[in-house]
Write a structure and sequence with these properties.
Keywords: Membrane, Transmembrane, Transmembrane helix. By secondary structure, this protein is mainly alpha-helical. It is built from six helices and no strands. It is globular and about 60 Å long.
């Protein structure tokens, strides 16, 4: 799902003609995900299925821009899905009352990334949909980070 979200966000930026600097990391992230998924599928004996998924993504790439409302809706749905995944993470943390393997540093880096993306979006495109996405993600990332820090286990030494 995250790969599709990256594709939608990249296509959204290209569709509206935003500067390359505002979305340059997305092709790199997408390439990494594609290579990783292909390797997983190849070594599990499902390489043909990987080709099928590639065709679906390729078709989706062009279908997203058939109408302006399609790309806008896709962008908003990706924001909703990303937010929902963070809410699920929060719910799990609240239920278990244990941060487990969740890294406060990783979530803190996500907070920093969202804050930086808000600043760069305001300075370059000022796109409301992108700003809303990153503001929502910033709030949720702060919340998850705080929850991870709250529930982390401290090691007592005597």
């Amino acid at each position: 799902i995250s790969l599709f979200s990256y594709l939608v966000f990249l296509r959204y930026q290209i569709y509206y003609g935003y500067p390359l600097e505002t979305y340059l990391e997305y092709p790199i992230i997408i390439a990494q995900d594609v290579i990783l998924i292909y390797c997983i599928m190849h070594f599990s004996g499902k390489a043909r299925r990987a080709l099928f998924y590639a065709l679906i993504y390729w078709g989706s790439w062009y279908m997203l821009t058939l109408q302006k409302w399609i790309i806008d809706l896709a962008m908003n749905m990706c924001t909703f899905i990303s937010a929902a995944s963070k809410v699920v993470q929060l719910q799990h943390l609240w239920q278990t009352k244990d941060s487990g393997q969740a890294s406060a540093l990783t979530w803190g880096m996500s907070v920093y990334t969202c804050a930086a993306r808000i600043l760069t979006t305001v300075m370059t495109t000022n796109d409301l949909a992108v700003l809303i996405r990153f503001i929502i993600m910033l709030i949720l990332n702060i919340w998850v980070t705080a929850t991870v820090l709250h529930y982390r286990k401290t090691i007592k030494t005597d």
